[in-house]
User: Which sequence fits this backbone?
């Protein structure tokens, strides 16, 4: 019997940039770092590129595990810590262990069809730009899934996903007739299963939840030998079939949630598992060319972090309560965002149809490369934009409209227990930015109705006034900040967030020329 283990880390950080400036400011609680991205980089992302095996030897853990890295995290890392990010990319070049992720970490079963399709497409494009290959796997945010999602993944060429045992409904032998009920979580997780949709199939690895909890919460990696022993027991007695055991957890477990776990991880994989004849493999390598024996039916609208399916991201289901807070704010937030998203998409489809030489959904699906790398904007215009709109700021702003529209559905906005947290405020902030772009493009103002829907909860006004409106930064305010920097440092040109800033001498005053790197908009201000 061949015994294999897949260890998958989901590396992700919520979006935290100010949607007006593009800057990531200081965040309370992240000390000694300025923000949480910085802090977790120092505790987790960087240490895993050089995990210590012994006094003279280190290893890049990203070469040893299956992993995905959310675009909001990898984009920030590429901008600020390119040397570390290059080590992660190099790890995938050696192992092929990386998987893609829907771009904005939305709950796909709750997305409307338009957003769901472009989320998947943008995630694939971001992956291709970063890893220089097509992804075979895709991590589903919160493992949230239904058959519409599966069908879209199959059409997009995805070969495998990860789920948890409680998301399985029934199994049977491929070409067999009898379905066996496993809806109580009793599915055998020591093998992958084929999952069929209308358009074909993909393969599912179900995580061993006991081991996942051991990794995430019980600090089992403090004792790599004990972890290996428990993994070995999970395979059971000698068996003729080759088996694979999947352990799926947040990547931040390895060093942030569990200090030193990156060292336990490398010792487990490099020393303790091989000593027991157990091999660590990548999902794509395991399924490639392998004939699977069983297929699975899944529960529609299920996830790994809500026992009620996907209600955690739409209503007061009880999941995620903090300090006795109620969750009644989730429903008005979901209803307000859903209404705004549908309304913006309907307007976008109608108003932008004449911009492109391909159907609007197809055009929007191709925004992903531009959003991931603005230097590809010109290429997008040349391929997909009609001559009369080519290189126009109007088209660029339409791309940004869809960018922020998708961001307001980010799952983090509903995950926790209080509307006054940073995550819901961030979703509302990007929603307001989308509203402003829409008004600028086509003169339609959705802000009053959006706020009225949001204000069905008692905390909404506080969040709006103190955590959203106060974050707004008009171009003039951003220019003033840069002028102050110039006065103290003499720096005349800089790229700050979304803005390229330049001081132009116009005696006796100074003029600031600023250009939005994403839309191409140019503003000039004279500031004494």
Assistant:
């Amino acid at each position: 019997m061949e015994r294999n283990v897949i260890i998958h880390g989901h590396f992700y950080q919520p979006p935290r940039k100010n949607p007006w400036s593009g800057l990531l400011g200081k965040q309370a609680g992240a000390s000694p770092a300025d923000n949480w991205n910085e802090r977790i980089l120092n505790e987790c992302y960087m240490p895993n590129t050089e995990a210590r095996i012994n006094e003279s030897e280190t290893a890049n853990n990203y070469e040893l595990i299956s992993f995905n890295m959310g675009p909001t995290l990898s984009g920030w890392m590429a901008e600020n810590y390119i040397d570390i990010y290059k080590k992660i990319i190099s790890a995938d070049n050696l192992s092929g262990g990386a998987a893609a992720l829907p771009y904005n970490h939305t709950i796909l079963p709750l997305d409307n069809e338009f957003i769901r399709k472009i989320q998947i497409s943008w995630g694939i494009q971001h992956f291709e730009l970063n890893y220089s290959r097509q992804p075979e796997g895709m991590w589903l945010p919160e493992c949230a899934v239904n058959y519409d999602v599966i069908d879209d993944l199959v059409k997009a060429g995805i070969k495998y996903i990860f789920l948890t045992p409680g998301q399985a409904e029934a199994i049977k032998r491929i070409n067999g007739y009898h379905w066996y009920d496993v809806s109580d979580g009793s599915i055998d997780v020591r093998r992958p299963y084929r999952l069929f949709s209308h358009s074909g199939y993909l393969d599912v690895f179900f995580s061993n939840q006991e081991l996942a909890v051991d990794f995430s919460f019980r600090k089992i990696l403090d004792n790599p030998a004990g972890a290996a022993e428990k993994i070995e027991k999970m395979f059971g007695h000698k068996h003729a079939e080759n088996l694979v055991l999947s352990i799926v957890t947040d990547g931040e477990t390895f060093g942030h949630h569990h200090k030193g776990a990156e060292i336990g991880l490398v010792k487990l994989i490099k020393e303790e598992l091989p000593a027991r004849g157990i091999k660590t493999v990548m999902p794509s390598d395991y399924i490639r060319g392998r004939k699977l024996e069983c297929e699975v039916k899944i529960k529609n609208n299920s996830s790994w972090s809500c026992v009620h399916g996907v209600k955690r991201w739409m209503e007061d289901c009880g999941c995620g309560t903090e300090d006795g807070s109620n969750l009644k704010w989730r429903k008005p937030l979901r209803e307000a965002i859903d209404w705004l998203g549908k309304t913006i998409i309907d307007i976008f489809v109608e108003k932008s149809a004449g911009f492109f030489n391909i159907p609007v959904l197809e055009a929007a699906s191709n925004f992903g490369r531009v959003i991931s790398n603005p230097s590809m904007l010109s290429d997008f215009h040349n391929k997909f934009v009609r001559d009369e709109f080519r290189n126009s700021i109007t088209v660029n702003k339409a791309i940004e409209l869809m960018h922020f529209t998708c961001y307001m559905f980010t799952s983090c906005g509903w995950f926790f227990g209080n509307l006054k947290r940073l995550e819901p405020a961030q979703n509302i902030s990007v929603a307001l930015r989308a509203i402003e772009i829409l008004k600028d493009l086509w003169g339609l103002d959705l802000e009053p109705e959006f706020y009225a829907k949001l204000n069905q909860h008692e905390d909404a006004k506080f969040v709006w006034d103190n955590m959203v409106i106060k974050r707004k930064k008009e171009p003039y305010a951003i220019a003033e900040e840069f002028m102050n920097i110039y006065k103290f440092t003499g720096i005349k040109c800089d790229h700050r967030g979304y803005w390229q800033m330049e001081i132009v001498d116009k005696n006796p005053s100074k003029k600031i020329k600023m250009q939005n790197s994403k839309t191409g908009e140019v503003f000039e201000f004279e500031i004494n």
About this structure: The chain has 19 helices and 17 strands. Residues 27 and 237 are 51 Å apart (CA to CA).
